[in-house]
Amino acid sequence: MTGRPMMRSPGRPGWSREVERRFWLVIATGASTEDAAVVCGVAPAVASRWFRQSGGMSPYGSPPPVGRYLSFAEREELALQLALGVSQRVIARSMGRAPSTISREVRRNAATRAGKLVYRASTAQWKAELAAARPKAAKLAANDRLREYVQERLAGVVRTPAGEERPGPKVRWVQRRHGPRTDRRWATAWSPEQIAQRLKVDFPDDEVMRISHEAIYQALYVQGRGALKRELTACLRTGRALRVPRERRRVQGKAFVTPEVMISERGAEADDRAVPGHWEGDLILGIGSSAIGTLVERQTRFTMLLHLPPMEGHGIEPRERGGPALAGHGAEAVRDAIVTSMQRLPDQLRRSLAWDQGAEMAQHARLRIEADLDVFFCNPHSPWQRGTNENTNGLLRQYFPKGTDLSRYTRGDLDAVAATLNSRPRKTLGWRTPAEALNDHLSSAQVAVATTS
Question: Are residues 304 and 157 in the same domain?
Fold first, then answer.
């Protein structure tokens, strides 16, 4: 390699496309950005930057080239053999390649160091990808009339029937999705699909005025397409600043919920209410991030309420990164409240607990151990799987209406309300009260223990 003309380096190599391609393949399986970073061996900050710069969309629409082009693995093998002093003809024979292919690869893609060519696999891969790039101008960037049409239907001004402009509230774009209970940008807000299909109606004979809805999405989300500004994503119905990978949408539920803790794995005795000790739980929410936890026993309808007061500093100082939720109904607070309530009960009344997939149950593994209680999760958007609890929450709204501050109630207040519900006769219990039904079970259990001992 010595003595050959030195190549002008196009700059410092970045991350290998192989690593980035692998990152997007992992993302396509539904994994989070952090998990994909671990799999690919890159820093979470790097993975997050890749995801944001691409708008949540993989820039690799086609599979990597194969066949006539050397792969990264072949380049690694080539670099190793050259370092051992093996001739290029021997290397070509062992790799099943033509000698000219190996010679051309070393000449074109070697690294320039100290005035000579040194072949390195990572640098060679990077140079090959630069040479293979064939950038194509986006359709919206090349057609001004089409771009103006799309932009007007997407982000046009809202007008009255008389044509008077109504700009709506002023909203600053912060490169994030809009938050709850915040103003949204007013715009014409046609969906990309509506725009793409309407073009055929407005321009039936002009084939130039055609674009797919996916091309509009890419123009919005993919940085560098150069047609539409990313801030126009605020005009979409969802307002997402980043696209959500398709497989990630399909993977419903929380990361801490695994198949073995789904409600379908709960025993039949809980489904038919054959024995007591199977509970359903949830939170009822109020203003100011206030909440009260509810626990209802499936057979007797006995209710216990969890006191979840806000923690010190709530509403005054920001939450510490990685720290507990200051509102008082984070995972740690809910776990401790359930453990405290369950430890007051005998073992036969601690069989299982069914909850929805809220983040407040992220520490269900510790709860299972500390409370000696099996925890199961309902399917997303399936409140009927906790029907007893949902019905009880409706009764509790008589005392804790929606839109009120629930943090003002003390533990004594909650105990009083729970006692009131537990002393109401229920038709499903033969007009007995939940307290009487629970006491009957405990009495019969004590008699059974005395008889067998």
Answer: no
